[in-house]
Amino acid sequence: MPIILCVDDEKIILESLKQHLRQAFGKTYRYEFAESAEEAMELIEEFNEAIRVIISDWLMPGKKGDEFLIEVHKHYPQIVKIMLTGQADDAAVERAKKQANLHRCLAKPWHETEFVEALTSGLESTSRL
Amino acid sequence: MEIQNSKNIILVVDDSRTYLVVLSQILKKQGYKVETASNGKQALKSVQSTLPDLILLDIQMPEMNGYEVCQKLKADDKTREIPIIFISGLNKIIDKLKAFSLGGVDYISKPFKKEDVLARVETHLKLHRLQQQLAAQNQELQKALEELRNTQEELIQAEKMAALGQLIAGVAHEINNPLSAINSSVMTINNFLTQTITQLPEFFRSLSEEKQQAFFALLQTSLAKETLLSTKEERELKRKLISQLKNIEDADIVADTLVDMGIYDNVEEFLSLLQAPDSEIILDFAYKLSNLQRSSKTIETASQRASKVVFALKKFARFDQSGQKVEANITDGIETVLTLFHNKLKHDIEVIKHYAPLPPILCYPDELNQVWTNLIQNALQAMDYKGTLTIKVSQQDKQAFISMTDSGKGIAEEIKEKIFEPFFTTKGAGEGSGLGLDIVRKIIEKHEGNIAVESQPGKTTFTVSIPIH
């Protein structure tokens, strides 16, 4: 089953993402969650091809979201990357856009419609590959 | 020589026609432009139309003597700076003293020698020129100094804004996260109210008595559970559940739902329910119903968190309009700042607090908050956001001591002296202006306190002392 991976250092956000994902995509996908970039890396190595989309927070202790997505992009360019930010950091978003082919950047708190659109369009682009 | 003097205008004032002619000739020969006046009134009039560079002024003249002319010239802003050389037959010391006290720059006695007059005129013109240059330079320097001061003010302001900016960024994160959680919980509840609730009666009718009981047992178990698991723990539980749910269809989805519902211990009692043909719909309803509780719990904790942050921010930014010291509790200020730093502290920083009770202290609370902000920020950066931050508050005699110790790499001996200097920074370009500790020291000085630093690798302590009046 294709996987959507969410990364945020706050559990409360991961749970929120799960609610939204379940609501929008039900059981079509499997949802995995990581509380840090390191943990996410382990999951990516484990599930690899199955992962279609990564939704990552930007402000996390240790590795920031843009760095993490850039690193992922080096090894897994096919994964669609979406970043979440609770605060605007234009330079980081710019970096992620250029170096990680960032699909969307969503501001917290996100709107349901833009969230679903970001994922739907992202998933469409992977299925076309 | 002639060319050099050609621009200088010299006014000669003397009631003796002979002297006027002789002096004019001597000066003209040297290339000076000469104006003449044979009495005080004429002299003052001449000065108004052509401003001379120097005045040779006789003292004894009818109607208005040289002293009076001098006084009038010195009283006028326009003519005050013109050097006046008295030239007179009065040769008593007292006359000379009077001449100098009225502002004359020199005194030539009659009869005079040509060379003497020329040398003095030349010297005083030169002196005056130099003086004017000096004054102009002085003014420029003053302007430059003022600009520097303004720039410094601006930099200090910029540093304040940068510190505030960093805080606000943290605060935005601290508020947007709970808001996101509230939003998704509201969505969940709304979906339940618009979609699920109408299906409930039909769903219950479809359940047998026995299944209803099993359903409520499942729901009860879920509602009774209130633990926050890490994602790792959840995956672990899911794996365990999947192996227990071997002969159930879509075991991983079921396991996922069960873990979300908090059902992972004694799952055996629900196995028959989960194996039933309509298990999917039963589990789905139980999940959605228990989700209501989780959502409301989420809203509760999220709004508590957001209001805690807003409260801290309000306290932090309590800009005191009066500019007067007010009584405030130092420890509260530190706690406020710690709340605002919450998202940077929660993971890899252990905060150890030793707070001795302190009486309220007359201070500028918002400025002290800026001190704590700076010191904590520096400590975190020194530790690369990993380590131990120890905050001690104590009292000795009439002094409050606040110390912040980080377990970072320490400050090298050779730069220890410099860290309080403005613009000194160890941070990369764009990370810090180097004004943080300078501002900290200024604020502490404003409180008649002291700040000291002790550092060795793994242990750097900044100690602030503030008198308790």
TrEMBL record, chain A:
The UniProt entry, under Pfam families, shows: Response_reg
Read off the PROSITE patterns from this record.
RESPONSE_REGULATORY
Residues carrying 4-aspartylphosphate: D57
Keywords from the named record: Phosphoprotein
The answer to whether keyword Phosphoprotein applies is yes
GO biological process, any: phosphorelay signal transduction system
Q: Which residues form the Response regulatory domain?
A: 3-123
The cross-references to SMART domains, in alphabetical order and at most eight, read: REC
Flavoprotein in keyword set:
no
- What PANTHER family does the record point to? STRESS RESPONSE REGULATOR PROTEIN 1, TWO-COMPONENT RESPONSE REGULATOR-RELATED
The entry's protein name is Chemotaxis protein CheY
Q: What is the lineage of its organism?
A: Bacteria, Pseudomonadati, Pseudomonadota, Gammaproteobacteria, Thiotrichales
Automatic annotation (TrEMBL), chain B:
Q: Which residues carry this modification: 4-aspartylphosphate?
A: D58
Alphabetical list of Pfam families matching this protein: HATPase_c, Response_reg
The entry's keywords:
ATP-binding, Coiled coil, Kinase, Nucleotide-binding, Phosphoprotein, Transferase, Two-component regulatory system
- Domain (Histidine kinase) spans 262-469
Q: Which residues form the Response regulatory domain?
A: 9-125
Q: Which reaction is recorded as catalysed by this protein?
A: ATP + protein L-histidine = ADP + protein N-phospho-L-histidine
Enzyme superclass (EC):
transferase
Q: Which domain of life is it from?
A: Bacteria
PROSITE patterns, alphabetized? HIS_KIN, RESPONSE_REGULATORY
Q: What is its EC number?
A: 2.7.13.3
Query: Per the database entry, which stretches of residues form a coiled coil?
Result: 120-161
The signal sequence is: none
Report the GO molecular function annotations: ATP binding; phosphorelay sensor kinase activity
Name the PANTHER family for this protein.
PEROXIDE STRESS-ACTIVATED HISTIDINE KINASE MAK3, SENSOR HISTIDINE KINASE
* Name listed for the protein in its UniProt record: histidine kinase
Q: What is the lineage of its organism?
A: Bacteria, Pseudomonadati, Pseudomonadota, Gammaproteobacteria, Thiotrichales
